[in-house]
Every structure is written in structure tokens, then in C-alpha cells.
């Protein structure tokens, strides 16, 4: 489903294009990775953020009070520009049971990179999230410890992620059907 003609019952997953979207995405990351999981002290931003593209899941995108409920970032490998990475996938706690938010963030992350020449898409995935990624056609390459936590280095099967050349429009999730 495309993001056109969406309603307040929909969540639109798209590339962040507005300052408020980026700020809200960073706030969700702080809530998840600093406060909830305690992986970072105060802020999770790093040198990757300077080159990364943030993606956001926005509830009520056309309404009076749209809000970001999830995020992920993607970036090219600085040496092998056909290799892309996804990281910092985070969904607000009160939206984690609302359907396909995480899966749609992953879908747009890989599909938009694919449209930009990606031939390999990788992520360090927390072990508890590896089953979701496997259902989405990813495979584990190795298991590692990152920031003191078990992670899977995983690779997306690009055959399941057709290129998306309109990432600022993105994909819509109708919450009436996703719940």
C-alpha cells in the first residue's frame, strides 16, 4: 500500500524529511537504547549518524498532531558503496504490539537502499529480534557480542525487497488491518 491518501488510522513509514521527525526519532532511540535497555549513557548517537538516513514510522501523518512511533537508520559502507547497513531499529513501547511497524521499517530500509544500488544489506540484530528478521528473509552469518549483548550479524535476501524509489512517500500500514 502506498502512503497516498492515508488516514489517522494509518502509520506511514518513510524517510525522515522534517526536523521534527529526526528529533522524535532520536528521542525514541534514547528511550529504547539508553533508558529502557541501558546500553548507552544519555545518548546513543555516534559517528554513523552523520552519514545515515533516518527512517520514521509516523502515526496520523496528515493529521493535526502527527507523531513518530518508530525509527531505523541506514547507511552505505564508506569503502564498498554497494553494501548498506541498518541499525538502531526502535519502536515506542506503546506501539510494539500494533502490527507491522518494525517489519515495515525493515522493508523500507532494505528496499530504498536496493533502489540506490545496494547489493548487500547487513545488520547487527539483537538476539531476541533474530526470529523476526528470519521471517523477513534474512539469514544469520555469525553470532557476536556487541555492547555486551548477543547479536546476530544478518544479511537480507534482496530478492524479497524490490527497489523502492519513493522513500519519502514510503509505505502505509492501516492499523485496522495490522492489529
TrEMBL record:
The keyword DNA repair does not apply. Residues 11-179 form the N-acetyltransferase domain. InterPro entries: Acyl_CoA_acyltransferase, GNAT_dom, MSMEG_0567_GNAT. It comes from the Bacteria. Transmembrane segments: none annotated. Keywords: Transferase. PROSITE patterns: GNAT (PS51186). One of its GO terms (molecular function) is acyltransferase activity, transferring groups other than amino-acyl groups. This is Putative N-acetyltransferase, MSMEG_0567 N-terminal domain family. It comes from Paraburkholderia lycopersici.
Amino acid at each position: 500500500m502506498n502512503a497516498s491518501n492515508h488516514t489517522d488510522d494509518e502509520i506511514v513509514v518513510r524517510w525522515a524529511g522534517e526536523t521534527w521527525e529526526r528529533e522524535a526519532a532520536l528521542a525514541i532511540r534514547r528511550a529504547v537504547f539508553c533508558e529502557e535497555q541501558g546500553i548507552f549513557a544519555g545518548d546513543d548517537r555516534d559517528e554513523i549518524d552523520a552519514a545515515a538516513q533516518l527512517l520514521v514510522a509516523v502515526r496520523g501523518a496528515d493529521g493535526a498532531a502527527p507523531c513518530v512511533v518508530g525509527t531505523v537508520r541506514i547507511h552505505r559502507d564508506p569503502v564498498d558503496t554497494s553494501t548498506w547497513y541498518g541499525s538502531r531499529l526502535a519502536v515506542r513501547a506503546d506501539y510494539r504490539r500494533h502490527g507491522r511497524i518494525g517489519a515495515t521499517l525493515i522493508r523500507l530500509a532494505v528496499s530504498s537502499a536496493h533502489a540506490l544500488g545496494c547489493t548487500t544489506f547487513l545488520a547487527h540484530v539483537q538476539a531476541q529480534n533474530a526470529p523476526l528478521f528470519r521471517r523477513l528473509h534474512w539469514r544469520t552469518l555469525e553470532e557476536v557480542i556487541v555492547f555486551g549483548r548477543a547479536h546476530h550479524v544478518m544479511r537480507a535476501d534482496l530478492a524479497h525487497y524490490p527497489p523502492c524509489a519513493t522513500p519519502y512517500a514510503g509505505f502505509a500500514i492501516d492499523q485496522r488491518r495490522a492489529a
